[in-house]
Model the fold of this input.
Amino acid sequence: MTKDIADATPVPILGSDWFDPLEAGVRRQLRSLIEGLLEEELTAALKRTRYQRGAAAAGHRNGHRERQVLGTFGAVTVSVPRARVAGADGKPTEWRSQGLAAYQRPTRRAEALIAGT
Done:
């Protein structure tokens, strides 16, 4: 195995010379989990999977954008899908995730921890 899969993101509390491959692996898996949840939510809203064609589609995908989420696990940059979905009146509107609210940076658990200190 010659491919290095470790993330060399520095941990601000411990200094720039410290690196934990387990922590980096957990963050990478967490990013994949969050992105997967957002993709599944969009698939349900559009009533079709990615690249699937059909008359029952409720809109279309429109790329991705980067968002940083701060949780008890630390800061993670995730790729949030964008889409246009048909509204109740038939006009297309921007899709918004129910799991990741607009302008939400810290998770609810992180907000509770911050407020508790």
Remarks:
- The beta strands are 59-71, 74-86, 92-94.
- The first strand starts at residue 59 and ends at 71.
